[in-house]
C-alpha cells in the first residue's frame, strides 16, 4: 500500500511522462497544445482523463442549468456518427450522471490497468493518445456548432 505522498508522486510522474510523450505532437490545427489540460474554449465542455484502476477519457458537460446541459448534449448527439467515425469506436453516452455535481458525459474506459503499475503505462498512454488526438480533430472541425 502506498502512502499519501507516494500515491501523489506516482500520479504526478505518470502525468509528467504522458505530457512529455505528447509534447511534440501538434494539435490538428498545427498549433502547440497542452494535451493534459486541453482547452475547449467553452467553459462547460471539458475533455477529461483519469486513471487509477481503469483509464477514463471523456467529454464532460458541466453546465449548472439542466436544460442548457441537455442542449449541449443534444448537439453532441446530432454529431454522434461523425464523432464515432473520427474516434473509430462507440463511446458510452450519459445525459445525466452525478459526480461532484450533475454532469452529462460521453466517454470510454480501458479496464484493468493501474496507474501504480508502471508496466501498464504504455497501454494507458496509447489509449489516451489515440482518443485525445481524435477528440482534438473533432473539436477543431465542429467546435463552432457549440459556440452558437
Structural notes for this entry:
The mean pLDDT is 94. A four-stranded antiparallel beta sheet has the order 1-2-4-3, covered by helices on one side. It is 45% helix and 20% strand. The N and C termini lie far apart (49 Å). The radius of gyration is 16 Å and the shape is globular. It has one domain (44-147). The protein is α+β, with helices and mostly antiparallel strands. It has helices at 4-22, 66-78, 80-87, 121-147; strands at 45-51, 55-61, 92-98, 102-110.
Strand order of the largest sheet: 1-2-4-3
**Total count of helical runs of at least 4 residues:** 4
Number of domains: 1
Poorly predicted ranges: none
How would the blueprint of this fold be written?
Blueprint: H1 4-22, E1 45-51, E2 55-61, H2 66-78, H3 80-87, E3 92-98, E4 102-110, H4 121-147
Antiparallel strand pairs: 1-2, 2-4, 3-4
Helix pairs in contact: 3-4
TL;DR of this structure?
This protein is an alpha+beta fold and 148 residues long. It contains 4 helices and 4 strands; from the N terminus they run H-E-E-H-H-E-E-H.
Structural descriptors:
single chain, 148 residues, alpha+beta, four-stranded antiparallel sheet
Amino acid at each position: 500500500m502506498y502512502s499519501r505522498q507516494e500515491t501523489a508522486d506516482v500520479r504526478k510522474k505518470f502525468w509528467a511522462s504522458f505530457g512529455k510523450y505528447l509534447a511534440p505532437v501538434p494539435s490538428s490545427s498545427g498549433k502547440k497544445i497542452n494535451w493534459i489540460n486541453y482547452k475547449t474554449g467553452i467553459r462547460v465542455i471539458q475533455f477529461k482523463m483519469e486513471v487509477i484502476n481503469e483509464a477514463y477519457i471523456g467529454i464532460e458537460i458541466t453546465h449548472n442549468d439542466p436544460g442548457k446541459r441537455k442542449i449541449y448534449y443534444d448537439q453532441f448527439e446530432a454529431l454522434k456518427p461523425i464523432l464515432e467515425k473520427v474516434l473509430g469506436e462507440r463511446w458510452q453516452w450519459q445525459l445525466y450522471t452525478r459526480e461532484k455535481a450533475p454532469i452529462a458525459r460521453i466517454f470510454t474506459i480501458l479496464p484493468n490497468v493501474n496507474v501504480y503499475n508502471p508496466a501498464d503505462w504504455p497501454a494507458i498512454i496509447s489509449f489516451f493518445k489515440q482518443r485525445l488526438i481524435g477528440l482534438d480533430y473533432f473539436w477543431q472541425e465542429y467546435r463552432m456548432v457549440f459556440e452558437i
